[in-house]
Amino acid sequence: MKAKYLKVDNNFDFCSLKNIGSEIKNGKLVVFPTETVYGIGTNGLEATFCSKIYEAKGRNPNNPLILHISSLDMLKDISNNISTLERKLIDRFFPGPFTIILNKSDIVPNMVTANLDTVAVRMPKNLIAKKLIDYAGVPIAAPSANVSGKPSGTNIEDIITELGDKVDYIIDDGFCDIGLESTVVRVINDVCIILRPGKITKEDLLLVTNNVELDKHVFEKCVKNEKVLSPGMKYKHYAPNTKCMLVYSSNTNNMINKINEIIANTPNSLVISTSENKHFYDCKNILDIGSRYDLNEVSKNMFSILRKVDAFKVDLVIIEGVPKTGLGLAIMNRLLRTCEYNYVEC
């Protein structure tokens, strides 16, 4: 099977999405854009259809999916007993790069939730995604468009290589604006717990409630048989095939010196560097991830850069870290998973 391809441009006819929406409702797999990363989605209310997502990605069925909605009416259908704080968070951050874990209704299949009694829900801001959900008339279950374990898909060229023969439609809307998956939270005992950091930061959440905490798994490994509440918490993720190491220091000179020390011990290396520091490394293979003073640029470039490293055939990829504040919290969360917690702080 070869996917049908649709390019979004200045002359794009949104009516062309009507047929694809109907196809989604009937169980077809579609790669579509959001403001965060591309998703691979289908009718989120049919277990048989959702099983195709797991098969196409090679995704473990214990890893729950996110239901993408386009209206609050859809939210009423799939969730129960929304609390006052949950409602405040929804009102503040929907639509946008924000996912909230809610009590699920009976119409949500266990295939979507990995047999949990909760469901992850997001309302994308991207216009293509919103129209597609509207035309489907059902929530779209969609994880990131990539083979499980690999960096998330933020541009179509990478996605076609991995999934082009496993889906029915691919909608190309260029590079994603954010390039990083949504923030995922759950409210427990009136505390907003960040399960997966993203563009909506802890500082943003504190504008809604004073009670915000990080789940321990944001920077710690899950144990083997532990159930997780959110996608992207448990399994190897965001990773190229090449071994990676993350290095960070609040003192930039210390970080540069440490990376050069690692390069000396492993000459066949590649450094993923911020723009300001790339000239300081004694390494022939350097990829520029963007300015350390513009973490929006770093987040947008991160996954596409990680997809390039295997072609260099090096023994080690050394990645510069960033401060764990604001958007840096999400970037470091993804990079730690990329490196499988192979982390040096100096």
Describe the secondary-structure layout.
Layout: E1 4-7, H1 16-25, E2 30-32, E3 39-43, H2 47-57, E4 66-68, H3 72-78, E5 79-80, H4 84-93, E6 98-104, H5 110-113, E7 118-122, H6 127-136, E8 140-141, H7 156-163, E9 169-172, E10 183-188, E11 191-196, H8 202-205, E12 212-214, E13 244-248, H9 252-265, E14 269-274, E15 286-290, H10 295-306, E16 316-320, H11 327-338, E17 343-345
Parallel strand pairs: 1-9, 2-9, 4-7, 6-10, 11-12, 13-16, 13-17, 14-15, 14-16
Antiparallel strand pairs: 2-3, 3-8, 4-8, 5-6, 6-7, 10-11
Helix pairs in contact: 1-6
Explain how this protein is built.
With 346 residues, this protein is an alpha/beta fold. The protein is built from eleven helices and 17 strands. The strands form two sheets. Strands 1, 2, 3, 4, 5, 6, 7, 8, 9, 10, 11 and 12 form a twelve-stranded mixed sheet that branches. The chain has a five-stranded parallel sheet with strand order 15-14-16-13-17, with helices on both faces. Strand 11, helix 8 and strand 12 form a beta-alpha-beta unit. The radius of gyration is 20 Å and the shape is globular.
Number of helices: 11
Helix and strand element order: EHEEHEHEHEHEHEHEEEHEEHEEHEHE
Overall number of strands: 17
| β-sheet strand percentage | 15-25%
Largest sheet: 12 strands, mixed
Shape: globular
* Uncertain segments: none
Structural class: alpha/beta
Q: Averaging pLDDT over every residue, what do you get?
A: 94
Roughly how many Å apart are the termini? Answer: 50 Å
Rg (C-alpha, Å): 20 Å
Helical coverage, percent range: 25-40%
